[in-house]
Every structure is written in C-alpha cells, then in structure tokens.
Amino acid sequence: MISSLGSGQFQIAERGKELLGENPSKITNNLLMKSPEFVTFWRPGLTNGASATTLIEAIPCNSSKTPRELIHEFYQELRNALTDDLLQQICSKSPAFFEHLVLEK
C-alpha cells in the first residue's frame, strides 16, 4: 500500500493507488484485510494457508473505536491480568515473604 523512502517518509504504492481509485467511503481494517500486502504487514508470521478471512475473525475489528482506544483497552486488559497474577503469587507465599516484600522493597 505504501513504500518507505526513509526515516518518516512514505510514498503511496500502486496497490494503494488502486484502493483509493475504488473511492471507498471509509478505510477500515476490514477493507485493508482484503489486500495480501496488508495482511503480511499486520501479521508478518501469518503463513501456511491461513487466509485474510481467518485473520479478520481472529482480530477484533471494532470500527467505532480508534486505534488509540483499542491499544488503551488491550493495555488495561494486560495490566489487569498482570495484577491478578501478582496478587495470586504474593498470596501463595508466606507472611514472612510478604513482610520482606513490603518493608524491604
């Protein structure tokens, strides 16, 4: 879709021009997933016959949220999972460990 010309410089590629020539009302991940080049960019390790349709089903694409909102949402999910894991680990230790953790660190 685009070619990198250097640090922070990009040029639209032929496939990108073709896509814009179709005059889409909105450019979304679902639209871009129809292009093998974008699928390769989105998931570089995707091979072995997996199709873009499989990838689209595996990646939640919510067009009502911006990429920044999605990143923040996934960050919060990861943070909550980490918090749960840490609490579980700490609770499984002895009271002496907890005291050392709180007072020494």
Molecular structure report:
The chain is mainly α. It folds into two domains: 1-62, no CATH class; 65-105. Helices cover 58% and strands 9% of the residues. The chain has helices at residues 14-21, 29-32, 36-42, 52-58, 67-91, 95-104; strands spanning 2-6, 9-12. Strands 1-2 form a two-stranded antiparallel sheet. A hairpin with a 2-residue loop joins strand 1 (2-6) and strand 2. It starts with a strand and ends with a helix. Residues 51-57 have low confidence and may be disordered.
Task: Give keywords.
105 residues, mainly alpha
Into how many domains do the coordinates divide? 2
Radius of gyration: 22 Å
**What is the helix tally?**
6
How do the SSEs run, as a string of H and E? EEHHHHHH
Helix content: 55-70%
**Structure classification:** mainly alpha
Number of strands: 2
Measure the end-to-end span.
50 Å
Oligomerization state: single chain
**What number is the mean pLDDT?**
77
Enumerate the spans where pLDDT stays under 50 for 5 or more consecutive residues. 51-57
Q: How do the strands line up in the largest sheet?
A: 1-2
Gross morphology is elongated
Major β-sheet annotation: 2 strands, antiparallel
- State which percent range the strand residues make up: 5-15%
